[in-house]
Amino acid sequence: MAISRPKILSIALIVSLVVNVIVGSFIAVQWFGHGAGQARAGGPLFNHRAAMSILEKDPQENVRKIWKARREILRPYFKEYGQSRRQLAQLLGAEKLDEDAINLAYGDMLAKRLQIEEMLKVSLLEFANALPADQRAMFFNEGFRKHKKHKRPGKDKSN
Q: How many other C-beta atoms are found inside a 10 Å radius of the C-beta of residue 44?
């Protein structure tokens, strides 16, 4: 009993979609670091709060001003990104899957995320230009350092 060509293509498309969703989910989890113990400010790549904590008062104030201005610029982009994620979730959760719409929505979500990442890079460059060399080195070493996860309250790893 031979399997028809359209059936093989349909199976390959479904397998491809599943793999893309799994890989995309993994990447999204890595980017956002939701859950207890993850560095939330700046995501897993740059921990803005930790970096700010080691600066002296004047440089810290300069960076804080830049951060507030950049945050206002970024806010609408994060809003659009959130909308694109919700749209993708609706499409993936629909009774009948529209693979073309899912692919478009997923691509749109990734494009919005890349836009945000590019703008965050500009912010990092602004921070670097605003800091004296000795403070700059400490700031970025701390911000890019891998921070330990905190235990969730009520969780005991000894069990």
A: 15
Six token digits for residue 69: 């201005």
Q: Residue 90 and residue 153: Cα distance in Å, rounded?
A: 32
CB 144: neighbour CB atoms within 10 A?
14
Hey, is 46 helix, strand or coil? coil
CA 42 to CA 70: how far, in whole Å? Answer: 13
Structure tokens at 55: 């600066």
Taking only the tens place, the pLDDT of each residue in 25-55 is: 767 666 555 444 444 444 447 787 888 888 8
CB 49 within 8 A of CB 41: yes
Q: How many residues does the chain have?
A: 159
Q: What is the pLDDT of residues 110-149, one digit of tens each?
A: 999 899 888 888 888 998 998 888 888 888 888 888 755 5
User: What contacts 109, CB < 8 A, 6 or more positions away?
Assistant: 81, 84, 85, 87, 88
